[in-house]
Structures are given as C-alpha cells and as structure tokens.
UniProtKB/TrEMBL annotation:
Residues 1-18 form the signal peptide. InterPro entries: CarboxyPept-like_regulatory, DUF5686. It holds the Pfam family CarbopepD_reg_2. Keywords: Carboxypeptidase, Hydrolase, Protease, Signal. This is Carboxypeptidase-like regulatory domain-containing protein. SUPFAM superfamilies: Carboxypeptidase regulatory domain-like. GO terms for molecular function: carboxypeptidase activity.
Length: 819
C-alpha cells in the first residue's frame, strides 16, 4: 500500500513538473507605481488579476503562449511567454486619449454612482436582510502549510526523498463540516457536525473561534481574525474608500468590476480589492480583497445566483495569510497577527504557533464551500444562545462521513499531513503551547497536574508589606471529575499566614454545573462588594491593594453550586458562614451591645448575563468568541440571624457595562453600578465607591497607580454608604500613530457617585462622610508611553470640592499590560 501511495505522489509531482510558474509585476512605466488588479489573459482560457502590489504569477502548460495585459486608462500590451521566461516586468504606458474619455464620461464618479446603488440595494441583496431565514451546510479546510512544502523533486528522486517530502512542510490541518441556520428572530447559528484536527487526540476548538471566514461583505464592519475592517459597502463607504471602475464582464449576468482602495489608512483599517457588482441588481457576484504589511492577506468571496429568489448567495470563500514585509509569524493558538496599518500588538503572554524563526514560505490557508442551500428556512434553531455549537458526535466521524461531505479535494498531500503531522506537532511542542495559553487566559501557569495561580505569588500593601505565597488548582491531568484548589500566603509586616482550600466537583461540563466547597482564612477590605460572577479577568498587580488600610480578618466556610442556564447567562448560589474579627479599632452597636467580633450566616445568589456576546459551546465548555456589550452582573446576599449568625441584613448589587468601539480604534466605555443594603448592616458589609487616593498632604506622596473604575481623588475611608450609585465614563481617542512601536493613547474620564447612610452613630470609633450631595471628578490619561506605563491626572469638583488645589488634585501612573 505504501508503495502505491509513493508512486501516486511521484506522479503528482511529475504533473507539477509539466507546469512552469512564472512570476511578474505590472507597473506604470512613467511613475514606476504598481498597477493593482490589472487584467492578465493567458492564451484563450486563463484570466487572472494582478495583486495590489502589481505582482502576479502564471502557470504555463505549453512551451509557449500568448499573454495580454490590460488596464483601464492604459495601452493594452500583448506579448509571448515561454518556459525559458524567468520573470516578467510589465511596464504599461497611460493612454491619454482613453484617460480623457474616462474623465469626460465621469469614470470615477460613475464608480461612485454604482457603489451608491449597491449600498441602497443592500436590503435586497444581503441574505440576512432580504430573507426571513436560510439554512446551508459548509465544508471547511484549514491549513498551515509551507509555500514550497518540499513538493519540488529532482530527476533522481528516490523513495527516501519522498518520505522526506512527507515529513516536512505542513504544520497543521483541520477539517470541519457545519450546518448553518439563520432567522431574523434568533440570528445566526452554526452547528458543527464534523471536526477533525490532525495530530491532536483532543479537538482544538480554538480554530473555530478565529473568524477567518466572515459571511458577508455588506456590513459596516468586515471582521476578519479579530480585526474590524471598514466594509466597502458600509454606511461610511465613501469616507473610508475611494473607487474606480476597471471593467465589465461579459458573462450571462454581466458585472461591473469596481476597484476599492482605503482613503484613511492611518485612521481606519481598510482592505484593497475589487468587487464584481451585478449590473442589474448591484449585488456582489464575486470579491477579492488584499492587504500588504506586516502580513500578506488575501480573501476571495464567490457567490452563486439563485433565480427563484433573485439573490446571489455565498458559495465559497478562501482566506490566505502569509508573513509580509515584517517577517511576522503566523499566529494560531492564542497569538495575534498584525494586520495592516492598524495592527493588534502581540500580548505580553501571547502564545505563538511555530518557532521564533519562521520560514518566509509559511502560510495559513482556509477554504470554505457551501452546499445544500435552503433559502426559505422557517424551522427552529437549537440552543440559540451560542453562535457556534459543537455536536458531541462531531469528533467521532468515520471516513465514510468525510468522503460524503468533503466538497473540496482532499489531496495526497492532505493525506500525508494527516498521517505525519503528529511528529511535527510534537516537535513544535504545540500541545504544551495550547495548554499554557488556556491556563494563562485565566491567570494560571500549568506545571504537570497543577495550574499555578499567578496572582498569589507576590503582592505588596502598606498593611501586610511584602506578601509572598503559592496557590493554584489541579487540572484534567489529575482528574476529569473534580479539581482541588488552595493557596497559602504570608505577610512579612503583619506576620500572619493566610490560606484557603477548596474543591470543585464537575456534575455536568456541558452546562458548567459544578459543586463548590471552600474554607479560607484571610483579610478583606472594609465595605467592599465582590460579585461571585463577572470577575472575568485576573490581575497580577492590583493598584488599590497597595494603599488599603481599613481591613478585617475573616474565616469563611461555604458550599455552592454554579450552573450555566444558557450560554449567555451564568448563575451561582452559595451558602456560607463567616467568623469576623477586627484589625482596626471598630465596633458595631446593635440592640445596645457593641460587636467587635461577630459571625454571619448568609445565602448569596449571583448572575452574569451577556446577551450580545458570541459564544462557542462544546461538549466540555462554553468559550467566549467575542465579548460584546452591554453586559450585566447582579448579586443578592441575605444574612440571617440563625445558624450562629449575629445579624440579619440584605445586600444587593447590579452593574451594567457598555462599550462603543469604533473602526478608528477609539472607544467609549460606560460602567453604571448600584448597591443597596438594609437591615443590621455593619460597616464591614456596607459599600464604598472604590476610592484610590492615599490620605497624605503632599501630592507626590499620593502618587500611585490608577485603577480602571476607581475614584482617583477620593481618599480612602472618606465616604461610606448603605445605598449608592456610580457612573464611570472613559473616552479613548484613536491612538497617536507616531511610529509602529510608539502609539500612545489619550483618555478623557468622568466619574460621578451619589449615596446615603442612615444611623451613622451605630458605627463606633470611626468618622466618615456620606455621598448624599453627589461626588464628581474628571481626569485625563496618556497611556502606553513606555512599556505599558503612562501618566494620568484627576481633579475633584462639585459638592465635595476641598479648599486647596492640591487636595483636589491627584497625579497617577497608569499601567496597561496587554495579555
């Protein structure tokens, strides 16, 4: 069998030898500028377009053939090529008579008129607007390959050479078969019914979250690999692009060939390419877009006409990404690719697929083809909460399933990749990189069966001094049924050891249903309120923690259960008991008795609702594909004077977060939060508004690191509330593009809080103010000046304005590390 396979591979390579690949470039002979999308006709059959840098490549099957290059406004060139041709430099001269005709006939304005009509007809041509519902299947093949991949053979090739060819080149191959559903009521849904990831025993779901095959070019934003590009048919198309008509096709349904080019490259991310627009309906028949920069990106969309609906529906899309002029790596499992003039910087803890020294021939290629299209779908959508749902049987499909559903040729080289890629993945230590990436995303670093908690290693505060510790949790290497977690730390100033130990029992991984148990002894800030859900990020550095000076000791026992009600709604309920004793001289007066130490028994219910975020649901987990806003976090805690509890009170918190992200990378963030408490509420369980200003006379002695949603001019312990509401608004301007490595960001900030407090006399040995008049501050930050550091300032005004400037002013460091 092996012999026949090698013979077949040899024959494939022999056929390749019968073709000659000839590269070339088309330029304006007068200005030496490249001519993008010049039409190149080889013989009578083969037609292609030059790339945006004027480059092209033809494959010559004959000894000699004719070549014709044409471009609007330029004189057509006819020449001959042969197998002896190594490179073609085509210099085209402007045809001034034709250019004059084009200008007289208003060529550029004609292109604008066509684009205007295409935009006006989006409601008729965009399937998601024109149809009430549709359904289709797709087959996708995702490859990381080497451009030359060893597929070049010498005349004296041997079997050993063939084996070498198989073992080099490709680094990754994945196949996917999906059912896609869309209704106007529930939006889009993809159900993955077949998934194969060569070289991995377990499926690599990360690939499903890459956004390499966006469906539509009609939207305002064209999202590709976590970067938003301005849509060439969006509402601000003429602001972001300029257009030129290149040609009209002579097919059964003719099309205008419209060239589009970014108008504001330094402001808005844009692509450069051509649209084939139907001359009757102005719908997209075909599109090609490219980008040259740190990477070389090429996207091709093909559409198929459905006469019964008079609609062009997507039929195939290919996306190819190569290293560009910067020689950047192609990132797959957690790293990011710098795309164009608006680049996403690689995170500090970014995980890159491949070695540090990547071949310039390496490329990423994704092909997706649709079939079994139904344009009158009115059925129901299963599990509409998740945009992508992976069927549990998807990873168990047999060869018969793949033979039936492969709509793109599965070549001998694909077979070789599937058979041999395991050694490549092992050599590249890819499994380990995926493991590290997944753990670091939630603040851990895997060491065998133990995930080390990075946030527990080091902290510093004025109360504890240096706090060193170790903590973490077991991972699936330890058990698939449960995990253990714990930590221990020691403060060298307070000389007290803190600890915690707990477990999580997995009842149902698909729904995130887990039993939780924990015992801990630690310290906590007075009047703090922490949501059980909604703490989605970890912080190695907590700016406020350094200067907190009003804390209390606690020993806590709790049991709970968490459950994912829908992919967009998580909930958790806990039953617990706390023993509390004071660090500072404070007591609570209740029923004529002063309580310094007390016990609390409580029930807490918390939820996190993200109605607009996109999710991937797998048999084992729920993965956030895209975090969209607004999102809502809520919690209610009920303390009861039973089971050893001394007080009865209720605490409620509700937080709404919203973010408006613009194509020019400016954004505006809003955080609106309300807290309400009533009953026998000691100060330890009241509320503060996240103050972050040490109470020192000198401004420079108050110099500290700014928080994201803290009041920078509000002094610690200055205000407490039983009922409060706060609003934070941050508006970041688009980055100043001074250089590729220096792009500082300016942020304008406005914050407001209001609150009230009844019976302040119940709280002994402490004095504080209330927020019943409303607290206001404004600030400005210049971030990412050097290595993530920046500078900020804030000023306090309004009802709680103090008597001198320096008391109202706060000067801050800012720190933004992109992980």
């Amino acid at each position: 069998m092996r012999f026949y396979f090698l013979v077949f591979l040899f024959l494939c390579n022999f056929s390749l030898l019968a073709q000659t690949r000839i590269p070339g470039r088309v330029i304006n002979k007068d200005t030496r500028e490249p001519l993008a999308y010049a039409k190149i006709q080889l013989g009578n059959d083969i037609q292609l377009l030059s790339n945006i840098d004027g480059s092209f490549e033809i494959q010559l099957d004959k000894e000699k053939d004719s070549l014709q290059i044409s471009y609007i406004g330029f004189k057509t060139i006819r020449t001959e090529v042969s197998r002896d041709t190594r490179y073609l430099q085509i210099g085209m001269r402007p045809n001034y008579e034709q250019l004059q005709t084009v200008n007289i006939s208003d060529g550029r304005k004609l292109a604008n008129i066509i684009i205007e009509k295409a935009i006006r007809n989006r409601e008729k041509n965009d399937p998601e607007i024109a149809l009430n519902g549709f359904r289709y299947r797709s087959y996708s093949k995702f490859i990381i390959d080497n451009e030359n991949g060893g597929m070049q053979m010498q005349a004296d090739s041997t079997s050993a050479t063939m084996e070498t060819i198989i073992n080099q080149g490709r680094g990754y191959l994945s196949e996917k078969v999906s059912e896609h559903f869309y209704t106007k009521k529930n939006g889009r849904k993809e159900k993955v019914i077949g998934l194969e990831t060569a070289g991995f025993e377990e499926p690599v779901y990360n690939v499903l979250a890459m956004d390499v095959n966006p469906l539509s070019l009609y939207k305002n934003k064209y999202k590709l690999y976590k970067t938003d590009y301005a849509g060439p048919l969006g509402n601000e198309a003429f602001k972001n692009y300029e257009y030129k008509i290149l040609d009209t096709t002579s097919t059964k349904r003719p099309a205008y060939v419209i060239y589009f080019k970014p108008r504001r490259e330094m402001v808005v991310a844009g692509l450069e390419g051509v649209l084939y627009l139907d001359t009757t309906s102005f719908a997209i028949q075909k599109a090609k877009a490219q980008l040259l920069g740190a990477i070389r990106l090429e996207v091709n969309h093909n559409y198929e006409y459905h006469p019964e609906k008079e609609l062009w529906f997507p039929s195939e899309q290919t996306t190819k990404i190569r290293p560009g002029s910067g020689g950047k790596e192609i990132a797959v499992f957690g790293g990011t690719i710098g795309l164009g003039t608006v680049q996403q910087k690689k995170g500090v803890l970014g995980v890159i697929f491949g070695s540090a020294d990547v071949s310039r021939d390496l490329y990423l290629n994704s092909v997706s083809r649709t079939f079994d299209i139904e344009l009158d779908y009115t059925g129901k959508i299963e599990k509409p909460g998740a945009e992508i749902y992976v069927n549990p049987e998807a990873i168990k499909r047999d060869s018969e399933f793949w033979q039936e559903n492969r709509k793109i040729e599965f070549s001998a080289r694909d077979e070789a990749t599937s058979a041999k890629v395991d050694s490549l993945i092992e050599a590249g230590n890819v499994r380990r990189k995926i493991e590290v990436k997944n753990a670091i995303a939630v603040g851990h670093y895997p060491i065998g069966f133990w995930d080390l908690d990075l946030s527990k290693i080091f902290k510093f505060s004025n109360y504890e001094g240096i706090r060193l510790g170790v903590g973490g949790r077991t991972n699936d290497r330890f058990s698939d049924d449960f995990s253990l977690n714990g930590y221990t730390t020691y403060g060298f100033k307070d000389e007290v050891q803190k600890y915690g130990i707990g477990s999580k029992i997995y009842l149902n991984k698909a729904t995130g249903t887990n039993l939780l148990f924990s015992v801990s002894r630690d310290i906590q800030e007075t009047a703090s309120f922490y949501y059980l859900k909604g703490q989605n990020t970890f912080a190695i550095l907590e700016p406020r923690f350094v200067n907190i000076n009003f804390l209390y000791n606690y020993k806590r026992f709790y049991a709970g259960i968490e459950h994912r009600i829908t992919p967009k709604l998580n909930a958790e309920i806990q039953v617990g008991r706390q023993e509390i004793w004071q660090i500072r001289d404070y007591s609570y007066l209740h029923d004529g008795k002063e309580f310094t130490n007390y016990n609390l028994s409580s029930i807490t219910l918390s939820f996190l609702w993200r109605p607009f975020s996109r999710f991937l649901t797998t048999p084992e987990s729920n993965i956030v594909l895209e975090k969209n806003f607004p999102q809502f976090t809520g919690q209610i805690e009920q303390a009861i004077s039973a089971f050893g509890g001394d007080f009865s009170f209720t605490r409620i918190g509700l937080k709404a977060e919203h973010e408006i992200r613009n194509l020019d990378r400016s954004r505006t963030e809003f955080i609106l939060e309300g807290n309400y408490g009533f009953g026998d509420l000691p100060l330890t369980h009241a509320f503060h508004a996240n103050p972050n200003n040490p109470d020192r006379e000198n401004v420079l002695r108050r110099f500290s690191i700014a928080g994201r949603n803290s009041f920078e001019t509000m002094y610690f312990n200055e205000f407490f509330s039983e009922r409060q509401a706060s609003l934070h608004i941050r508006h970041q301007l688009r980055p100043f593009l001074i250089s590729k490595s220096f792009q500082p960001e300016m942020v304008f900030i406005s914050r407001f809080a209001i609150g009230d407090f009844d019976n302040q006399n119940k709280h002994q040995n402490i004095s504080f103010d209330t927020l019943n008049h409303g607290y206001s501050e404004a600030g400005i930050e210049l971030n990412k000046i050097l290595a993530g550091f920046g500078l900020g300032a804030a000023y306090r005004y309004g009802a709680y304005h103090l008597d001198t400037f320096k008391k109202n002013f706060a000067f801050k460091f800012t720190l933004q590390l992109q992980l």
